Amino acid sequence: MADNDEYVPDFDISKPTIARVYDATLGGKDNFAVDREGAAVIAQHVPRIKEASQDNRLGLKKGVEYVARQGIDQFLDIGAGLPTMENTHQVAQRINPDAKVVYVDNDPIVLAHGRALLADNKSTTIVTADLREPESILGDAEVNEMIDFSRPVGLMIVGLMMHFHPSEDPGSWIRTLLDACPSGSYLHITDFADTGWPEQKAMEKSCVEVLGNGWARTPEEIEAHFQGLPLVPPGIEFPARWVGGVENPDVPAVEDLEDYQRIIMMGVGYKE
Ligand code: SAM
């Protein structure tokens, strides 16, 4: 879209959106000048923002691979984002070609681009809905066509929780979704980390400046998203250090990580 701003009047291009700014940070083309300006402001505070966004994608990929390898063959990916490299359906369907994926996003631009990408893929679809209204996701006809809630589900809320202030009680939305998923389901989350490193505060400050949201959380606060579900080892970790199912993986020390590798933390929980 970088070259076609004048042809796409249907979207509000006066304000940056989360999906488009994130796309701009990843070097994508599905964004407008206002989003690129927002990404540039973030880059002033977090010079390696592109790698930080890629690190979140690493967290997405690791979690999807782990969950798919446990035999989960249906994924509900909320806050899907604009299509990029290694989307959830590509990662999951590489492990299980029959895996079904439903993408959910509240930004209509994601639907427009997602539909084009998924035109030939009968096992994957995308719907416009809001995590703030979990019942509308659970009641959506397309979601129910693809996801059988009597069988375990891979529920993904990746790169989204940071956009909700704790006062909104996002945990209640997650609880509603988890209640609809049977035992054997997994919950996979990434969030902005707050473990005292300055780059984490820089990320929070610049995101809040550009988007009005983007709050960092302590590992304990991130763990609380899981509503008491046991976490797959190693628990809440930076993506570079998360190896699913391995208690003490042989990975770099936190001190040896690059700045951009300390912005995101991830976890995967299991519903017993
Ligand atoms: N999950 C992808 C990833 O981690 O690479 C994309 C993350 S992107 C930072 C967050 C996405 O969540 C955006 O596409 C945005 O439109 C979407 N989003 C924001 N608020 C939402 C909400 N309340 N309900 C559903 N989607 C939302």
Automatic annotation (TrEMBL):
Residues of the signal peptide: none
GO molecular function: methyltransferase activity
GO biological process, one term: methylation
InterPro entries on file: SAM-dependent_MTases_sf, SAM_dep_MeTrfase_SAV2177_type
Keywords associated with the record: Methyltransferase, Transferase
Keyword Methyltransferase: yes
Protein name per Swiss-Prot or TrEMBL: SAM-dependent methyltransferase
